Q: What sequence folds into this?
């Protein structure tokens, strides 16, 4: 939990750190861009202003030229007062910017015209030119500052902008003195210029919606500005006031400007005004976009880190899980192996070599009632599921064959049980056999398994019907077959792990090679089944070479060994004295087996108790009866069969006496049957042909 | 099957020899009758030479034990071999006899 929290904190910290770094980077970058942009903007407005000043200068010069070129004409026209009017009209005609022209004479220049005389031509909205004499009591130009200034300074001058009325256009006038022969100023000539076009020219191309150009007088008064339609006059006035210093910067925040001055009269200032916000709006927008991208990137990064960490953790968990599974598989494998027989009598040997993982192979055998029950099987597929199914099959075989002698019945019940809930569609090939170790009779039934080899003086495959494998179809009927093996006959059962052991060229080991080994084995010095199975295994491994073992390699070999089969019998009368004869018979029969004293005594005692029981109780008192005792051995077990024609009596059903009671309460009877049961490995009773047949078996290995 | 009885002041010792099977049980029971007459003495059954015993033999031993216990005598089995021990074990007699 601690490490989890730490790793969480660590990850979040990492992302936050990254975010902070990116933000710092972004701010630094923003400021740099801002600075660069400011410089760029200033540079650009300077360029614009320079070109503007040139345009303005040029147009002003144009007026100045018009004035210069017209001075001689004006002067000539002054010879007669009426001709002056045409001269002022020409001023307008010659200058496209001119909207008016005037000539203000020194007082009393023309005595006929009175003290003041100022002919004036003005351009009308319809394009016509109106001419009039405008001087009078309401308009005394001799009081005009500009007029006076020209007279005093004796040079040309541009007037400050002015208006004739609140709604009139703004004008400026270029004034030039006119001298007489003596150098005295006789009159002042003026050309009016409408300033609104200057404002339009200045604002024709502005980089930002709210930026604008201004033309100011030297004193800072507005000459021309943007048209009202673009920027409100109040806004313009605010900037003018700011530049004049009437308004402090705090009252007009975010306003930047660059300015330049016309390099000669009228020395007006051209000011380019822009809002800082607007200049940076795009950068800021870009910065915000950039930030958004970065944050998005960081989020993706965080997500990826998180995913990576989770995957890492999952991987660790998975590998731990895998290790645990591996350990469990190992356990499963051991359990599977432990279920297989590990001790072998000389007439049976089996081996199972598992492939890398647990597999679904099985072999098993055991002896019961003088019969060898054996099986071999192979579950389709590999791994734990097939191993588990095989375990179930193994248990079923053990349980069923303990009660049922018929191999086909065993298969039938196994099949029914295995079909139940087999959703995974696995199936099992299975072979069940029952070999009578005394007679050599082999009964068998095959559920789709490979046919075993039968080795006599020839080598053949056991001729057997191949029924459906187990766990396929619940109603499958398994055919039972039988044959009698000659003494010495060898039976080899195997799974496809042997026949299909593959080499590097993907060739299978195959039956012919098995047959070859079996052929050679007949002349082998060591005829043990262990040797046979090992030889086969070695041959298969040698064949496969470096190719990995892909399937379980399972073999079961058995031989009907008649060498140790021996039989004897004795008939006793129902008299207790006969027990002595029985004792001798048993001792003689057991002698060649060279059993240890205790085992021999046990067998004898069990037999004696069983026979005494018959002698005492089977026949009515006083009636003579016979007791037939058959003794059989095959080298692995001894089997006694007691047959009598007395009352039907099954001693195997008698309850055992309580052996824990004290001496006084200890019953006298029942001890005999107890001893028989305990000392033998199996006792079975049957009633055949009005005879009691009691069979007692003891393994002697 | 032979039975030899030796008597001292404190005990009666019966030496069992051979095979105490069903056939021999009746005779052995008769042979051991003196053990039941010597009231109060400790009864020792020496099994050194006893090679075999059947349930009939066990029955003989049990009847001796029952009668001895009714008069307060102890019954001790001595020198019991593996074969006999096994049978005593299976039959549960091991818990009712004193075995030395």
A:
């Amino acid at each position: 939990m601690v490490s989890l929290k730490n790793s969480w904190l660590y990850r979040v910290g990492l992302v936050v750190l990254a975010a902070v770094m990116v933000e710092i980077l972004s701010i630094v970058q923003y400021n740099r861009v801002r600075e660069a942009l400011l410089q760029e903007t200033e540079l650009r407005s300077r360029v614009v202003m320079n070109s503007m000043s040139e345009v303005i200068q040029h147009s002003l010069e144009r007026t100045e030229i018009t004035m210069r070129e017209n001075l001689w004409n004006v002067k000539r026209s002054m010879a007669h007062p009426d001709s002056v009017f045409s001269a002022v009209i020409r001023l307008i005609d010659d200058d496209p910017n001119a909207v008016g022209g005037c000539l203000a004479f020194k007082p009393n220049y023309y005595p006929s015209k009175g003290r003041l005389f100022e002919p004036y031509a003005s351009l009308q909205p319809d394009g016509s030119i109106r001419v009039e004499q405008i001087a009078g009591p309401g308009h005394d130009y001799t009081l005009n500052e500009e007029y006076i200034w020209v007279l005093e300074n004796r040079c040309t001058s541009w007037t400050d902008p002015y208006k004739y009325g609140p709604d009139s256009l703004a004008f400026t006038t270029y004034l030039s003195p006119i001298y007489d022969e003596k150098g005295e100023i006789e009159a002042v000539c003026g050309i009016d210029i409408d300033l609104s076009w200057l404002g339009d020219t200045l604002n024709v191309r502005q980089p930002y919606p709210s930026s604008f150009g201004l033309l100011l007088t030297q004193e800072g008064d507005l000459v021309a500005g943007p048209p009202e339609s673009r920027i409100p006059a109040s806004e313009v006035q605010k900037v003018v006031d700011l530049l004049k210093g009437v308004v402090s910067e705090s009252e007009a925040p975010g306003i930047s400007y660059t300015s330049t001055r016309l390099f000669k009269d009228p020395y007006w200032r051209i000011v380019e005004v822009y809002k800082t916000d607007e200049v940076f709006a795009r950068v800021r927008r870009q910065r915000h976009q950039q930030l958004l991208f970065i944050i998005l990137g960081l989020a993706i990064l965080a997500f990826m880190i998180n995913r990576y960490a989770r995957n890492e953790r999952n991987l660790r968990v998975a590998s731990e899980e895998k290790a645990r599974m591996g350990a469990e598989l190992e356990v499963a494998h051991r359990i599977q192996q432990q279920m297989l027989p590990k001790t072998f009598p000389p007439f049976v040997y089996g081996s199972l070599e598992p492939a890398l993982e647990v597999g679904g192979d099985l072999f098993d055998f055991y002896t019961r009632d003088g019969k060898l029950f054996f099986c071999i099987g192979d579950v389709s597929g590999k791994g734990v599921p097939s191993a588990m199914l095989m375990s179930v099959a193994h248990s079923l075989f053990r349980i069923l064959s303990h009660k049922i002698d018929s191999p086909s019945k065993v298969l039938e019940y196994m099949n029914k049980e295995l079909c139940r809930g087999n959703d995974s569609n696995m199936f099992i090939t299975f072979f069940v056999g029952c070999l009578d170790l005394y007679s050599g009779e082999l009964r068998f039934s095959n559920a789709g398994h490979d046919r075993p080899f039968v080795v006599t003086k020839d080598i053949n495959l056991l001729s057997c019907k191949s029924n459906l494998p187990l766990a396929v179809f619940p109603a499958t009927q398994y055919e039972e077959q039988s044959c009698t093996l000659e003494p010495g006959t060898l039976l080899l059962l195997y799974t496809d792990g042997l026949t299909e052991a593959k080499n590097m060229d993907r060739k299978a080991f195959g039956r012919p090679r098995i047959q070859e080994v079996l052929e050679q084995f007949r002349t082998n010095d060591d005829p043990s089944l262990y040797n046979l199975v090992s030889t086969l295994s070695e041959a298969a491994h040698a064949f496969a070479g470096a190719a990995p073992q892909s399937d379980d390699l399972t073999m079961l070999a058995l031989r009907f060994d008649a060498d140790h089969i021996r039989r004897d019998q004795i008939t006793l009368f129902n008299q207790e004295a006969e027990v002595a004869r029985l004792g001798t018979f048993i001792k003689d029969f057991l002698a060649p087996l060279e059993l240890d004293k205790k085992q021999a005594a046990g067998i004898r005692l069990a037999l004696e108790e069983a026979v005494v029981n018959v002698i005492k109780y089977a026949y009515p008192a006083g009636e003579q009866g016979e007791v037939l005792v058959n003794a059989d051995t095959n080298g692995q077990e001894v089997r006694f069969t007691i047959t009598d024609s007395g009352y039907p009596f099954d001693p195997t059903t008698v309850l055992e006496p309580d052996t824990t009671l004290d001496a006084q309460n200890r019953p006298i009877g029942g001890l005999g049957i107890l001893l028989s049961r305990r000392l033998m490995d199996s006792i079975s009773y049957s009633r055949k042909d009005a005879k009691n047949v009691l069979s007692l078996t003891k393994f002697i290995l | 099957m032979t039975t030899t009885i030796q008597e001292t002041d404190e005990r009666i010792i019966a030496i069992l020899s051979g095979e105490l099977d069903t056939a021999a049980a009746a005779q052995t029971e008769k042979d051991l009758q003196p053990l039941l007459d010597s009231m109060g003495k400790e009864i020792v059954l020496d099994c050194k030479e006893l090679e075999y015993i059947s349930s009939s033999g066990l029955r003989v031993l049990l009847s001796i034990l029952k009668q001895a216990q009714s008069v307060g005598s102890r019954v001790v089995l001595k020198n019991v071999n593996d074969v006999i021990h096994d049978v005593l074990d299976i039959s549960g007699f091991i818990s009712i006899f004193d075995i030395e």
In short: The mean pLDDT of chain A is 86. The longest strand of chain A covers residues 170-179. The two ends of chain A are 61 Å apart (CA to CA).
